[in-house]
Amino acid sequence: MGASKAYDVGIVGLGYVGLTLATVLADTGNSVIGIEKRADVVELTNRGVPHFSEVGLGDALSRVTASGRLIAAQHFDEGTTCETYIITVGTPLSSDGKVRLDMIEAATRQVAENMRDGALVILRSTVQVETTRNVVAPILAATGKQFDIAMCPERTLEGRALQELRELPQIIGAQDAAASDRAATVFQRLTSSIVKVSSPEAAEIVKLIDNTFRDVQFAFANEVARLCDAFGVNAHEVIASGKLGYSRTNVALPGLVGGPCLEKDPHILLQSAQSRGLHLEITAAGRLVNERQPSETVDFIAREITKRQLSMPLRIRVIGMAFKGIPATDDLRGSMSVKVLDALKKAHPDAEIGVFDPVIPAETLTRNFPDELVFNRFGEAVSGASVVVIANNHPALGAISPRTMSEFIAPGGFVFDYWNHFSHLPTSELGDSYFAVGHTEAAT
After folding, report:
1. DSSP 3-state assignment of 146?
2. What is the CA 301 to chain-centroid distance, rounded?
3. Residue ending a domain, choose from 171, 198, 225
4. Best CA proximity match to 46, nearest among 78, 77, 12, 23
5. Which of 18, 352, 393, 430 sits between 20 and 30 A of 163, alpha carbons compared?
6. In a domain, 444, yes or no
7. Would you say residue 207 lies in a domain?
8. Whether residue 187 is found in the same domain as residue 270
């Protein structure tokens, strides 16, 4: 790590949240040390190379590492000190669906051991309500050292993280005014938009409801799609027509709902409510609708395969494996494309299944999906396929029209599009081999 020294900021966890924040803080003049247990991530970071895809991050990271304003290490050296510590480790759900605290606890213990009297500690990870007060603060207090603590949740959009760190209002929730003021000073280097709330719990809830609101919105859109499918009506037409010039209705468009936040944050909110004896019916229903979509749509795909009497072995292609395509990302965490892939494998165990993504390198796909064929190009993936499943909304996946695709796929084959990439086309251009969520009646 080099000679021990004093840093303005120490960030524990160099994942999506931690590395982007560390880079922007360093770029605004802070000296920053990032702590990350993965040796390969530390090595890449110190070479100025991001370990994930994010717009502008490569240039910014190489700049701050070359200047010495950001350094990464696997642990704090004994002589290293920081004025402010920011905990940004992940908070995945365990196999039983409960919120894991072990990563937060381990990161807090690292901070507790290293901090000096008077340190400011900021929790930025998404957590169950009261984690700041009941989990992080007691570990710090057990040292007998003096400290200030605040909860300042991360709310950036992958693909726009560097821009949003400088533009989004930063939520500050602390137990007292002094800690609130100190945390605000850290983030005022990034943005002039600071929103102070009255407690860490208020800040924790802000983050959870931000993402749960979006999850519920998308669940309603997927419910509309189910209704329209039942009546043979195009959901995209219904939603787009209904809100045209009518400001009181702004229904989202249907599609797969997942990712590292929307997949888990509603569950964290539900568990927070359960700790006080509450059951949040709408939140729970939203997750139910969104989580069962892969199995429902794969059932439709299976029925269509049977109806068309497609020749065996089936060649099924899943296109777009990252959890979203706008803004583009290579993040597979919480990707519903993976859930769709798993459902297809269960439904068609003898099928030849292949994957492609316009952002994720083929070697990464091979490492994550060793049982599947991996394609380097969209055209290669589509050629000769029995079924093409378009599973994310990257614009490149809408570049080849359904009629053109039908010339390359197997005779009788079809396309199922989770994202309605071609909703703008007239039905005559969609042909009889194209289906979408909320549009399972093929054009004739």
Report:
1. coil
2. 26
3. 198
4. 23
5. 393
6. no
7. no
8. no
Residues 173, 288: one domain? Answer: no
Does any domain span residue 170? yes
Measured over the CA atoms of residue 369, residue 374, residue 376 and residue 381, the dihedral's sign is negative
269-282 burial code (b ≥16 CB/10 A, e <16) = bbebbeeeeeebee
80 closest CA partner among 72, 92, 88: 72
What's the CATH number where 118 sits? Answer: 3.40.50.720
- Domain span at residue 243 reads 214-436
Short-list 233, 265, 245, CA closest to 125? 265
Q: What is the pLDDT along the chain (444 residues), one digit of tens a residue?
A: 445 689 999 999 999 999 999 999 999 999 999 999 999 999 999 999 999 999 999 999 999 999 999 999 999 998 999 999 999 999 988 888 888 899 999 999 999 999 999 999 999 999 999 999 999 999 999 999 999 999 999 999 999 999 999 999 999 999 999 999 999 999 999 998 999 999 999 999 999 999 999 999 999 999 999 999 999 999 999 999 999 999 999 999 999 999 889 999 999 999 999 999 999 999 999 999 999 999 999 999 999 999 999 988 999 999 999 999 999 999 999 999 999 999 999 999 999 999 999 999 999 999 999 999 999 999 999 999 999 999 999 999 999 889 889 999 999 999 999 999 998 788 778 888 999 998 887 654
The contacts of residue 181 (CB under 8 Å, 6+ apart) are none
Residues 172 and 225 in one domain: no
Same domain membership, residue 191 and residue 258 = no
In angstroms, what is the C-alpha Rg of the chain? 24
Instruction: Tell whether 1 is covered by a domain.
Output: no
